[in-house]
Specification:
- The structure is a single chain.
- Helix content is 45%, strand content 10%.
- It contains 25 helices and 13 strands.
- The protein has helices spanning 13-16, 40-52, 57-60, 64-69, 88-100, 103-111, 145-164, 185-197, 201-206, 220-227, 247-264, 269-272, 280-286, 309-319, 321-340, 347-361, 379-391, 423-428, 455-472, 476-481, 489-492, 510-531, 542-561, 573-584, 599-602, and strands spanning 71-74, 77-80, 138-139, 142-143, 177-181, 211-215, 235-240, 273-276, 293-294, 366-371, 409-412, 434-441, 500-507.
- A 6-stranded mixed β-sheet has the order 1-2-13-12-10-11, sandwiched between helices. Strands 6-5-7-8-9 form a 5-stranded parallel β-sheet, sandwiched between helices.
- The relative contact order is 0.13.
C-alpha cells in the first residue's frame, strides 16, 4: 500500500478537522464545523436505541443468523460481538454514521501524513514506525520511511553488539541487565509488550541470561526496586525522553547516573547509558555520547511510540531485533487492514463503532479489558493511557463544547483474577461493556494426570462462560425452579443484557502482540474521528505540571531555610496545611547542604535495608 498523495490534492487541515460531512457550520466561531450529533445518522441511531431497549441479549444470542453476521475475522484474529446490544441493522446505521463523519477520509489523511493533530500542527504517523522499507509515507513532502529504517538499523546494530558481548561496560564485563527510564507512553507500552513476550517460548529463548526492568515513577521507592540486586558493572541504562527535559524521567536518570558514577566513576556513563531522544545537545551535556542517541519524531505521540526506538531499543536488547521485527510486522499487518478494508470487515473500525455506541447511545461510562492470559496483564494499563489520554476530551477539534459523552474509563485484570475482584459489579451492579481476550494455544502447557481438563482449558472455560453469564443472566423463574428461598432470589438474580465482545488469537507471540496493539490503537482513533476530537494531543496533563513547578520552588525555599509555609506563599489554606504537615516530617534533610542522599539516609529507622536486600 502506498500512502502518498499529491500535495495539491490533499485536503487542508481545516477540512481534515471537519466533524460531519455536508453539515452547515454552526454559529460557534469562524470555520467551526457542526458536531456529529447534528447529523441525521446520529439522530437515526438515537431513535434506533428505542428499538434496542425492547430487546434482551438472552433472546438475541439464540438467533443463528444474527450470531453469524456479528463476527469479523482477519489474519487469525477472530472477534465475536454477538453479545453486544446490537443487531445487523444497528451496524448498518453505525457504519452510515462513520460515512457521515468522513471516517474513510480521516483515516486516509492520517496515513498520508497530513497534520491532523491541528492543535500542535503535527502529523500523526505512528504507523510509519512499523512500515516496511518499500513503503512511501510523506510528511511535509518528505518520505519518512527511510528515516525510520535508519533508526531501526542502528537499533539492530547496537542491540546485536550488546547481546553478543562486543559492546561491554567500563570494566569489560558484558551488559546483561537493562533499565529503561521513562514515563507514560515511554513506559506503559514497552512494559505491556515485555510482559506479553517474557513467557513466549520463542521470545524467551532469545532473552536467556538477560533481564529488562523499567523505572518510571519519580518515587525513590521505584528507584530502589528497579535497581535492586543489579550490578552497575553489567547494567545498561536507556533514558527515554524526546526533549530530554521530562521532569520525572530526568530526575530518575540523574539518580541512576549517580548510582553508576559512585561505583564506576564518571567516565563509565558513556559506556553504561544511552538515550532515546532528539535533543543531542542535552544528551551530550548529560554525559551520554550523542552517537548513542536513538531518534524519534514529533509525529509519534508518546502513547503511540512503542514501535519506535522508545520500545524497540530496550525490547531488542532483551529479546533480539529479529523477534521485535516480527512485532512490527504484526502491527503493520493490522495497519494495512485498517487503511484498506471495508468498514463491515474492518476490525478496528467495527470495534471503535461498538465502543462509540456503548458510550454515546447506551450511556456506558467504562470498559473492562479482560485478557484470559496472564501474559497480557499489562494490556489494560497501556490501553488505559492510549484511550483515556486520547479521547478524554470535552471539546471538539474545533474547540466546541460537546453535547454528547465521549471516552471511557478503562480498567482491567487478567481472568480469572478479575472474577474474584470486580466481576461482582459487572454482573449485578453497573453495566460495563467487556472485552474478553482469549488465546487458543497457550504459551505454557500444564496438564495433570486425573484432571478433567488442562490448566489452560480451565482458564478458557471461564472465558466462554463469563461472556454468556453477562449476556443471558439468570431469572427469578429459574431460581425458583432450583428451590432457591424467596429471601435470596433478589440477591441471586442476574439481569443479564450486559454487553461484551470476545477476541481470540491463535497464539500470543511477537507478531500477534503487534496485531493486538494496532487493533486497539486504531479503535481509539476511530472513536475520536467520529466524535470529532483531536485524539492526538493531551493538554489535560499540562496544568498539574505547571502547578507542580510552583510547589517545587516553594519546597526548595522552605527546605533550604528550614521554614514552614505561610499564607503569603500563595497556596490555598488546604494545600498550605497539607504542605506543612509534610514539611514537619521531613526536617532531617536540608537542601542547603548539597550531597547525594539515598533511601537509607532518608529513613529514620534502625531497620532500614539497602536496595539490594529488597525482594
Amino acid at each position: 500500500m502506498s500512502a502518498t498523495r499529491d500535495s495539491s490534492s490533499q485536503p487542508s487541515v481545516r477540512r481534515v478537522a471537519t466533524v460531519a460531512r455536508g453539515v452547515p457550520d454552526v454559529k460557534t466561531g469562524e470555520g467551526a464545523a457542526a458536531l456529529i450529533s447534528t447529523t441525521d445518522e446520529w439522530k437515526d441511531l438515537q431513535k434506533h436505541k428505542e428499538d434496542i431497549d425492547k430487546t434482551h441479549l438472552r433472546d438475541l444470542i439464540n438467533d443463528p443468523a444474527r450470531c453469524e453476521a456479528l463476527t469479523v475475522e482477519y489474519n487469525g484474529v477472530y472477534c465475536d460481538y454477538a453479545r453486544q446490544r446490537v443487531t445487523p441493522e444497528t451496524m448498518k446505521k453505525l457504519y452510515a454514521l462513520a460515512d457521515a463523519a468522513d471516517l474513510k477520509g480521516k483515516i486516509g489523511a492520517m496515513f498520508s501524513g497530513e497534520h491532523i493533530n491541528s492543535t500542535e500542527d503535527r502529523a500523526v504517523l505512528h504507523v510509519a514506525t512499523r512500515a516496511p522499507k518499500d513503503k512511501v509515507i510523506n510528511v511535509d513532502g518528505k518520505n519518512v520511511v527511510p528515516d525510520v529504517h535508519e533508526v531501526l538499523d542502528k537499533i539492530k546494530d547496537f542491540s546485536d553488539k550488546v547481546r553478543d558481548g562486543e559492546w561491554v561496560g567500563a570494566t569489560g564485563k558484558p551488559l546483561t541487565s537493562v533499565v529503561a527510564v521513562g514515563i507514560g507512553g515511554s513506559f506503559l507500552g514497552p512494559l505491556f509488550v515485555h510482559t506479553a513476550l517474557r513467557t513466549c517460548p520463542d521470545a524467551a529463548a532469545g532473552s536467556r541470561g538477560r533481564q529488562l526492568r523499567f523505572l518510571a515513577n519519580v518515587d525513590p521507592v521505584d528507584v530502589a526496586r528497579s535497581l535492586n540486586g543489579l550490578d552497575p558493572e553489567t547494567t545498561l541504562v536507556v533514558v527515554v525522553s524526546k526533549t530530554f527535559t521530562t521532569a520525572e524521567t530526568m530526575l530518575n536518570a540523574r539518580t541512576v547516573r549517580q548510582w553508576i558514577i559512585a561505583s564506576l566513576g564518571k567516565d563509565a556513563v558513556a559506556k553504561h547509558m544511552v538515550a532515546v531522544s532528539t535533543n543531542l545537545k542535552l544528551v551530550s551535556e548529560f554525559g551520554i555520547d550523542p552517537d548513542n542517541a536513538f531518534a524519534f519524531w514529533d509525529w509519534v505521540g508518546g502513547r503511540y511510540s512503542v514501535c519506535s526506538a522508545v520500545g524497540m531499543l530496550p525490547l531488542s536488547l532483551q529479546y533480539g531485533f529479529d523477534t521485535m521485527n516480527k512485532f512490527l510486522e504484526g502491527a503493520w499487518n493490522v495497519d494495512e487492514h485498517f487503511a484498506t478494508a471495508p468498514f463491515e470487515k474492518n476490525l478496528p473500525v467495527t470495534l471503535g463503532m461498538l465502543s462509540l455506541w456503548n458510550v454515546s447511545f447506551l450511556n456506558c461510562p467504562a470498559r473492562a479489558i479482560l485478557p484470559y492470559t496472564q501474559a497480557l496483564a499489562k494490556l489494560a494499563p497501556h490501553i488505559q493511557q492510549v484511550a483515556m489520554e486520547s479521547n478524554g476530551k470535552g471539546v471538539s477539534i474545533d474547540g466546541q463544547p460537546l453535547d454528547y459523552e465521549t471516552g471511557e474509563i478503562d480498567f482491567g485484570e487478567p481472568g480469572t483474577n478479575g472474577q474474584h475482584s470486580f466481576y461482582q459489579l459487572i454482573h449485578q451492579g453497573r453495566t460495563i461493556p467487556c472485552d474478553f481476550i482469549g488465546i487458543i494455544k497457550s504459551q505454557q502447557s500444564v496438564y495433570l494426570k486425573g484432571e478433567i481438563v488442562s490448566n489452560h482449558d480451565e482458564l478458557m472455560c471461564n472465558f466462554f462462560a463469563q461472556a454468556d453469564a453477562l449476556a443471558v443472566g439468570k431469572t427469578d423463574v429459574q431460581l425458583r425452579s432450583e428451590n432457591v428461598p424467596d429471601s435470596l432470589i433478589p440477591h441471586k438474580t442476574f439481569t443479564g443484557n450486559r454487553p461484551s465482545l470476545s477476541i481470540m488469537l491463535p497464539a500470543l507471540n511477537a507478531y500477534t502482540t503487534g496485531q493486538l496493539l494496532a487493533i486497539y490503537e486504531h479503535r481509539v482513533a476511530v472513536q475520536g474521528f467520529i466524535w470529532g476530537l483531536n485524539s492526538f494531543d493531551q493538554w489535560g496533563v499540562e496544568l498539574g505540571k505547571v502547578l507542580a513547578s510552583k510547589v517545587r520552588s516553594s519546597m526548595n525555599e522552605k527546605r533550604t531555610k528550614g521554614e514552614m509555609m505561610s499564607d503569603s506563599d500563595g497556596f490555598n489554606p488546604s494545600t498550605t496545611a497539607m504542605l506543612n504537615r509534610y514539611l514537619e516530617g521531613k526536617a532531617q534533610l536540608k537542601y542547603d547542604q548539597p550531597e547525594d542522599v539515598f533511601p537509607c539516609d532518608l529513613i529514620d529507622s534502625d531497620e532500614c535495608r539497602p536496595p539490594t536486600s529488597y525482594v
